[in-house]
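request received
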Amino acid sequence: NAGVTQTPKFRILKIGQSMTLQCTQDMNHNYMYWYRQDPGMGLKLIYYSVGAGITDKGEVPNGYNVSRSTTEDFPLRLELAAPSQTSVYFCASRETSGRGTGELFFGEGSRLTVL
Amino acid sequence: GESVGLHLPTLSVQEGDNSIINCAYSNSASDYFIWYKQESGKGPQFIIDIRSNMDKRQGQRVTVLLNKTVKHLSLQIAATQPGDSAVYFCAENMRALTFGSGTRLQVQP
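response:
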């Protein structure tokens, strides 16, 4: 198993540009998450999904959109990039649903810079 | 809102010593906690977890202690090694993980 795979690993955007961060997992996990991590900080939840066709907002959803058409894929879309979105983005997945169960498996991260 | 946080931003220890990393949480309904290790340039990796019906859980060289009375969590690393140098996060596992800002552990040779 490859686990959680994110692409691209690095990207520089100009203000106002759009892009999609790709995330795919081959573990047949139902739950998937997008986090952002600013320098020296913890991870903030952007969006998450409990299964194909279902998505929900996290702590910091503004400026982002997601979709979950398949169990494997959970892309994150930035429509109008802003400097405040400069960050490292992590995708993660989890096997089980509900509280108190399931380890999160993280991708290696996507480093985005908006200039 | 309620949050999970850490007491110290940086902890420096000598190789071979024991390390203790602390974490405070404020959500009294939290019933499951996880410690993650994040090395530079990588995603977080699971270390150990604990449920609220436990006070202590041990793994290989690591022990997590939970004090629900004061809403405090700690991670103890025995015989700290240079490979333990990383940022450590505690996280509260509800519908999604809520992370603290992390503690950087520096191991001096």
